[in-house]
Design a protein that fits this description.
4-stranded antiparallel beta sheet; single chain; about 5% helix
Length: about 120
């Protein structure tokens, strides 16, 4: 069964940290690059960070030096993580995981709100 389940979001004060998790099940996710995306209210979904099957990483300029991405592979399942430090109000968004480039299948996302 192909499924994406994100978790770990919440309300955090500016400067705080959160760790997002994603369980991506299905053979399609077990190979190739994976990524975190986010969509803020009134804005298009954007790529936040990606990680290849060889663990090479790339980050949007807006999160470089603050976010890290990692993955654990198991048979037909990928666990994807996003460690977010020094959070800013502009990081507020719904965060999603998917392949990179993204497939048409999306999970429900997890809400991250950065506010004092």
């Amino acid at each position: 069964q192909v499924q994406l389940v994100e978790s770990g979001g919440g309300l955090v004060q500016p400067g705080g940290s959160l760790r997002l998790s994603c369980a991506a099940s299905g053979f399609i996710f077990s190979i190739g690059a994976m990524a975190w995306y986010r969509q803020a209210p009134g804005k298009q979904r954007e790529l936040v960070a990606s990680i290849s099957s060889g663990r090479s990483t790339n980050f949007a300029d807006s999160v470089k030096g603050r976010f890290t991405i990692s993955r654990d592979n198991a048979k037909n399942t990928v666990s994807l993580y996003l460690q977010m430090n020094s959070l800013k109000p502009e990081d507020t968004a719904v965060y999603y995981c998917n392949k990179h480039p993204a497939t048409s299948r999306w999970g429900q996302g997890t809400q991250v709100t950065v506010s004092s």
